[in-house]
Amino acid sequence: QLVWEANILSYVDYVYEKTKVHGNSSALRVPPNLPKQVPLLGPTFVPPSYRHVMKRSTVPKIVPETAYIVALTVVHPFYHSGTISICPQCGDSKNVNWDSWTGTGGREVQGLYRNERVIGYQLRCKTCQGKPKEERKQGFCFATTNQIFWEKWEHWKIPRSIPIFNKRLAVTRNLYDLIIELRPTSTAAGLAEHIRRNTHPGQLRYNQLHEFSAPDDPSCYNDAPITNDIITDIYLDFTKRFREPESVAYCKTRTAQSLSLDNTFKSASKAVVVDSDGKRTRLFTGGILSVINEVSETMGWVSDSKLNTILSNHMKALLSNSVAC
Question: Highest taxon of the source (predicted)?
Fold first, then answer.
């Protein structure tokens, strides 16, 4: 796997050097074209299959070790220069330059049918570098495989060839779309089991000459399926980063001539949170009160467990935004 990745990085470095503009050049200079004799590959590099070996050799030497190699996605300015050349901290796109490959190497990517790997490049922001340390919260050098680099991006704006990055891991776009679409109608454990049964085989066949490795062998195949806690983390991160701001913005557009409180979500009082010590806590002891208008549109939610404080503050906010007709 490391030899496979090293050859890919050498190729990307070569084509990048052939097509990039020198830093001291004028802004009007057109980048050089890639020579015609050089094939354009990437950004996702898929290892050769058995079909490639059979078609290129009369007596192919087929060994299971070639199936252990996984695909590698390269997040590099050669493929996304005009799209991702923006500082994730200050938003500057002029005083930035691409520095080098990430020092920690590749990163694991959880896939739908097969796990993959991704490796990125580092963006250095001169504007953030010139600021005092207390003003820059996240430094001035950002890796394209770090969650910080993408935390201000809408998920639909990220190029589809780039995985979705989380604090714990990265996932392919196909798996990410599957989770955010099916998780609301299923449990995390049920969805994880469904993915495991349909995409990750529990038993692998043997080759005629060599025995195939176990599915979870870290030195060979090592293609473990996604777990329910990772699915939960991905969906919660999606909800916090995208759905909550969209919901807040949408609720602000609604109007009302009269408001009423409805205890439809009384069943929320049954929700229990268990910590690492086994202690159970009911967050919503009295359920959730929904604030609705005259046409039954939801204007907001109020936790009944802290009714006196939260309800009064919520009503003050609604009154401050109201306009007399």
Answer: Eukaryota
The answer to whether position 187 is within a domain reads no
Closest CA to 254 of 221, 291, 229, 205: 291
Domain shared by 11 and 141, yes or no: yes
Q: Is the pLDDT of residue 256 over 80?
A: no
59: helix, coil or strand?
A: coil
CA distance 207 to 63: 8
Tokens 């929700």, residue located? 271
- What pTM did the predictor assign? 0.69
Q: Which residues pair with 289 in a beta bridge?
A: 302
Q: Is there a domain that residue 58 lies in? A: yes
Rounded Cα distance between 195 and 188, Å, is 11
- Where is the domain boundary, 112, 144, 169? 169
Helix (H) or strand (E) holding 84: helix 77-84
Structure tokens at 127: 């504007």
Length of the chain: 325
Q: SS3 helix, strand, coil % of the chain, rounded to 5?
A: 35, 15, 50
How far is the first Cα of the chain from the last one, in angstroms, to the nearest whole number? 69
* Final residue before a domain boundary, out of 113, 143, 169: 169
Asked if 130 and 17 sit in the same domain, the reply is: yes
In a domain, 186, yes or no: no
The secondary structure of 209-236 as a DSSP string is SSPPPPTT-TTS---PPP-HHHHHHHHH
The tally of domains found in the chain comes to 2
Q: For residue 257, how far is the Cα from the chain centroid?
A: 41
Whether the link from the prior residue into 218 is cis, omega within 30° of 0, is no
Let me know if residue 79 belongs to a domain. Answer: yes
Domain that holds residue 56: 2-169
Using a 10 angstrom Cβ sphere, with 0-12 exposed, 13-18 middle and 19 or more buried, the burial of residue 232 is middle
Task: Give me 143's structure tokens.
Answer: 């890796």
- State the DSSP code for 121: E
> Which tens digit of pLDDT belongs to each residue from 173-224?
988 888 888 888 888 888 888 887 766 554 344 344 556 666 666 666 677 7
